[in-house]
Amino acid sequence: MQKNELPKAYDFNTTEQRLYTWWEKSGFFSPSNDPGKPDFDPTKKPFVISIPPPNITGGLHLGHAMFVSLEDLMIRYHRMLGEPALWVPGSDHAGIATQLQIEKALAGEGKTREDIGREAFIERTWAWREKYGGIITEQIRRLGASCDWSRERFTLDEGLSRAVREAFVTLYEKGLIYRGPRLINWSPNLKTAVSDLEVEYSEEPGNLYYFKYRLADDPSKYLPVATTRPETILGDTAVAVHPDDDRYKNFIGREVLVPILDRKITVIGDQYVDREFGGGALKVTPAHDPHDYEIAERHNLPLISILNRDATINENGGKYQGLDRFECRRQLWADMEAANLVLKVEDYTLNVPRSQRGGEIIEPMISEQWFVKIEPLAKPALEAVNDGRIEIIPEHFKKVYYNWMENIRDWCISRQLWWGHRIPVWYCGDCNKMTVAKEDPSACQHCGSTNIRQDEDVLDTWFSSGLWPFSTLGWPDETPDLKYFYPTSVMETGYDILFFWVARMVMSGLEFMGEAPFHTIYLHGLIRDAHGQKMSKTKGNVIDPLTVMDEYGTDALRFTLLVGSTPGKDMNLSVKKVEANRNFANKVWNAGRFTINAISQAPASAENPPEWTPADEYIHARMRAVIRDVNRLFETYQFGEAGRQIYDFFWSEFADWYIESAKIQLRRGGDQAYYTAWTLMRVLDKCLRLLHPFTPYVTEELWGRLRDASLAKGEGYTAEDGWGEALIIAAWPLSKEIEDWESAAVSDFSDITIEHTKALRTLKTDLGIPVRKKVNAHIITGKKLNQKFIQQTEYIRSLASIDNLGLSEKITGQDALKGHPSASIPATGSVAYLITSEDISNEEVLDKINAELKNTEGQIKRLEKLLASDFAIKAPPPVVKKEQEKLESFRAARDKLKKQLESVE
Ligand SMILES: [Zn+2]
Questions:
Q1: Dist. CA 93 → ligand 1 center (Å)
Q2: Which residues have C-beta within 8 Å of that of residue 450, sequence separation ≥ 6?
Q3: If you measure from the C-alpha of residue 329 to the centroid of ligand 1, how many angstroms do you get, rounded to a whole number?
Q4: What is the pLDDT of residues 759-815, one digit of tens each?
């Protein structure tokens, strides 16, 4: 292989790992302006992203691939703009998810977490984290993520744990954290509270049970009540009727008997009651239903909890104590039937709350939990978006954000787990008071007793990840990093965690830092399969990004995700698309091979000032336009559209038209060969820079080769912004004002060379002549022949594979052209003829056209018959429409063939 010559195909396998290691070792992932280094300039504005910390339990999925691709694109773009760019990486301890992993392993040994105790359990979890917690970050590296790994953080590391303590104690001292009984979503399997957001409702068939609530002083009279969960009858503390309901309003204030238990409760009047539902009277179980809980608050009703933590019946359930909730339902109902308290049972569609993790039925339960008072935090967070300090992209998510923030309930932050930040509250065994402290206390703050014990619960994972943008920079310490890099710039994540995470970061950033944590929230959509279906293991339609990268390379996967994405919208992904983009990477590589080869063979410099050809001017003008478009699109976060434009330009304009034209120009040698090689170099250089944030590997590899080949030829091949050390830190191509010559340069080449070449190629295809087979042609320009046209005939000749290309203004020698297939070119008003007689006899052409005509007419008959049949009525309209369209296109083809027939005859 010659020096400078590229391998025939791009080999991503040997390239990716090598480049990533080199980038990282060279320090390119660290911000160019760093408060920890000499020559730091605090006035330079940095661009900062905090990574959405992946769970340490997670294996790489497409959701990760999506956010890594988008964030890396933004970081690389800003780095190339010359801004100090910092992307802070890290991972999340993921309370429930990680604990479940360890419990599963323990179960395999026939043990529970209680068997080994809290300390040993946590030790074991740390060991697991040491062993497996790095897998996900390794996989993120593979995607090309240019994070500053020297600043990597973990939500449970020492600094972040200190931040959590600081936040908890500060909020507690401000009166924004309190402990109290609350109706929470209880997961009986996990034995922990789960947030509203972790509960999914599913429609399932069930029953509606009708029964009697008898009057205590006159058991012959009763209120008909309906419920979907009969076991909760045991916890009823009132029966409510609508105050305007004539049937029942006389019952208000009287006492009724709880079935079987015969406990007396009161009938109340409440507007909430739906008179149409069930019998029109409502049983009120405040300890096990959120709506009933609200009614109880209005009427000051007692709360009676009937469930243990494992969802068995507790001591309040009388003789049903100890039964599982569903067994209790069965037995209680049977007993009520026997006691003649049952009216009927109907089929009914239930909206069942199920755990997002695990899937079991969630029970609303009263429990002592820790809460954050959310209203004082939500208000400033609402304002920050309202007054534009924070932008949300796409904008329509603002409405969703407002709506959620306005209706937000206090945040239950305690979880009954062991893996996480343990709540920094100690209870005194002597005076019963609480000590809440940043440092572990050795004695009670109030009475000095050493008889204290720490709260058993840990904090919700989102409590620590809510502090992420500033805790990762050193908060609560006033570190140089925190001072310089906070607030960060863009928070990029899936719209599905806008509330779980993003809203909490906004609230805590405003509360603890006094400043919004970022100025822009960019939300990407979810990835679905090729048919728009959600990917799931049970459906078997999950695409594994690691397999895809193995097969097609990282660049192909990244480009597919980035170009397919529109902010906030779900995208459909198929491996076919990735494969097509692998072909694009190869196309880029081949264009690079051609260019580098051209540079090495062309003169090192020119003897005279340039005389640009129409092809040169065209590609320069188009390149300038594409740079303007891409910059505009990047500035407005339309990265997908920007990628599509670069792709189209590279493939259809640079590779298909300019490189093909360059072959002619290079053959001419001398100055023209030099200026052509120079143009190839300039355009390829710009394209690689624009493509770098999308496809970092192939562009870096090729750019390095292009630079070396150019440097080897000396000053005659200088990149406009210079040849630097690496593409990753090379300058981003900036827009230049549009100049007068550009539009004419584009239309001259495109109207003459491109349009005429296309027309002649189409004529060949229509006649079944291979595109590369050389034939003669003639163009009638219809108006005065200009220099531009004459200049470009050689391109047309070469690109359309034409032997002799005649050119005349008017239709002179009409007889000679008569009978030859022709096409008119509207852009110039000219007509192109394909001179077929030398190659194909008229008879051959006629035979061919006739055969095709026969086939086409056959198709028309078939479709006409089909559309006149039952099919047109019975088939779905889109299918019928498709057949009609087919018929139309066959009819158009028939007309065209008939015309061709006339022209040959
Ligand atoms: Zn005490």
A1: 33
A2: 442, 443, 444
A3: 44
A4: 999 888 888 888 888 888 888 887 777 888 888 999 999 999 998 888 888 765 556
Instruction: Please say whether the beta carbons of 186 and 193 come within 8 A.
Output: yes
Q: How far is the CA of 41 from the centre of ligand 1 (A)?
A: 52
> Token match 């590296």: residue?
141
* Cα separations in angstroms, 285 against 230, 238, 298, 716: 11, 7, 14, 85
Give the predicted TM-score (pTM) of the model: 0.81
CB 497, CB 524: distance < 8 Å? no
Closest to 558 measured CA to CA, from 10, 74, 148, 149? 74
Backbone angles phi, psi at 235, to 5 degrees: -105, 10
Centroid of ligand 1 to alpha carbon of 159 (angstroms): 30
For residue 455, the CA-to-ligand 1 centroid distance in Å is 15
Whether 298 contacts 268, CB under 8 Å: no
Helix, strand, or coil (residue 205): strand
Inter-axis angle of helices 614-635 and 741-749, nearest 10 = 120
| All residues at 6 or more sequence positions from 355 whose CB lies less than 8 Å from its CB, including other chains | 187, 189, 190, 194, 198, 199, 200, 361, 362
How far, in Å, is the centroid of ligand 1 from the Cα of 368?
A: 21
Q: Quick one: which of 212, 231, 413 has its CA closest to 313? A: 231
Cα–Cα distance, 236 to 287 (Å, whole number):
9
**188 φ/ψ sector (left φ>0, alpha ψ -120 to 50, else beta):** alpha
Residue 470's Cα: distance from chain center in Å? Answer: 24
Distance 456 CA to ligand 1 centre (A): 18
Q: Which residues lie near ion ligand 1 (Cβ < 5 Å)?
A: 428, 430-431, 444, 446-447, 449
Distance in Å, CA 435 to ligand 1 centroid? 8
Of 569, 408, 414, 421, the residue nearest 503 (C-alpha): 408
Percentage of the chain lying above the pLDDT 90 cut: 63
Q: Are 668 and 623 in contact (CB under 8 A)?
A: no
Q: Which of 503, 463, 468 is nearest to 488 (CA)?
A: 468
Q: DSSP label at 694?
A: T
Highest mean pLDDT, choosing among 604-608, 782-786, 805-809, 900-904: 604-608
- Both structure tokens of 602: 């062309």
How far is the centre of ligand 1, averaged over its atoms, from the C-alpha of 457 (Å)?
A: 20
